[in-house]
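The passage that follows is intended for readers who have already worked through the single-chain material. We present the inputs for a multi-component assembly, then the predicted structure in tokenized form, and finally a short commentary. You are encouraged to pause after the input and sketch how you expect the pieces to fit together before reading on.
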Amino acid sequence: MARIIVITSGKGGVGKTTTAAAMAMGLAQRGHRTVVIDFDVGLRNLDLIMGCERRVVYDFVNVINGEANLNQALIRDKRCDSLYVLPASQTRDKDALTQEGVGKVLEDLGKGHDYIVCDSPAGIEHGATMAMYFADDAVVVTNPEVSSVRDSDRMLGILASKSRRAEEGGEPIKEHLLLTRYSPARVERGEMLSVDDVQEILSLNLLGVIPESQAVLNASNAGIPVVLDNESTAGMAYNDMVSRYLGEDLPMRFLEEERKGIFSRIFGG
Amino acid sequence: MAVQTSSDTATHTSASPAFELKASSFTLPVIRLLALDMDAVEAQLAPKVEQAPGFFRNTPVVIELGALSQEAGTVAFPQLVGLLRGLGMIPVGVRGGSAPQNEAARAMELAILGDSTRAGRAAAEASVPDTRQGRRDADSSAEHGTETHAELSGSLLVDRPVRSGQRLYAAGGDLTVVGPVSSGAELMADGNIHVYGPLRGRVIAGLQGDLRSRIFCRDLQAELVSVAGHYRVSENIPTDLKGRSVQVFLDHQVLRIEPIA
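Having made your guess, compare it with the prediction:
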């Protein structure tokens, strides 16, 4: 059976889809058969981030409704053979996701894959609870500011009580924290919560810290998951995240402000 | 509401006042009847009570009849009251019934509660999912023996973080949390509450009015502390007590927060 990872946050715009794309691509690049599912029915974005928006024929809801089979809906990534994308439907709403239907799709996908990455929509309503219900692992994406931290905290409470594992009384979902859009300079000036501040409130296993980076936006616009950009700090940090998820013990990077040399100061490098 | 008889003005009465009349509100579980078949009610209710015996023991409950009013049948109150008592609950009243239903309820010495106006009912209904979710959170954590141990006394021990939006209630006992309690979380107990991680949420000890209940915590950052209805919000907690080990208790009807050395 595949391991099911939900990427969630409660709050919107914190980097869930970017993280889902990075996680899926990172796992696939390391040779694991991976599929990434967009649960944001009605507001789909994952196809854009993955750069496969022009190849969408059938979607997740079609499969749930039996209008297409999985092989018709899955899109194989052009850069990595072991990665597939299951896009969301843009024309339906989240009520189209039934617990039975989602469970069936995940079960079928589990037979041919090692990891299933679920990109959750924002909020704590139906779409989000469907994305997390069957999860084995949860990556809670949080920005270093108070409202995002509180929403993540709320999400962790829901993860602990409204998942299949909770209902069946099994081992709880393994929860990980990912801090995104981290800016050491702003932390230093006291404008942003530090890693320690967030850790103190959420007390959670820290999977990674992704620095704020222009490369993320550029990558999204180009439809190339930022994890493939090994020149950028965000790309490197995402690669560390995937390795840590797979059990490697790596130090956190990019927590200190980069000291600019005299030349880069003068020439604005 | 409160009728106060001050001993200064009432010098002609020799004895000190024997009682005070006060108004107070309580949150009670409501059993919303959807069918008239009492055997079915019993068959479905019994396993629920078994899951959380501490929650239902000696708990006053209200019987909601609103969903039945279209049906012509009569509610078998003697049987219903008997089965609720048999499961350990104390039926105290009915709500939302028709005139004949209320008459029958009165015959069983049940109080007729609440207004049946539209607004009242809508408000009551709107508040139901919230409390129900809270209950379920509490119940579901009670079900998992690995994290939570519902003891015979009704006490509850939780050894994982209590997150924003979660509510835990130890009915008839103490609540102990070995871990942090986040801002936006709510702890309630009929007895004492102990928190061993940072306490940032709301804590209500002595929910049913036990004046001897106390709150103990090792790092006070709470949004609200309350003992038997006497409360203080974060704003009114002296800053020099924040972040410290304290106990919160009632001393002659005054809520006191004192550091523990």
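Commentary: Chain B touches chain A through 25 residues (CB under 8 Å). The first helix of chain B runs from residue 38 to 51. How closely did your sketch match?
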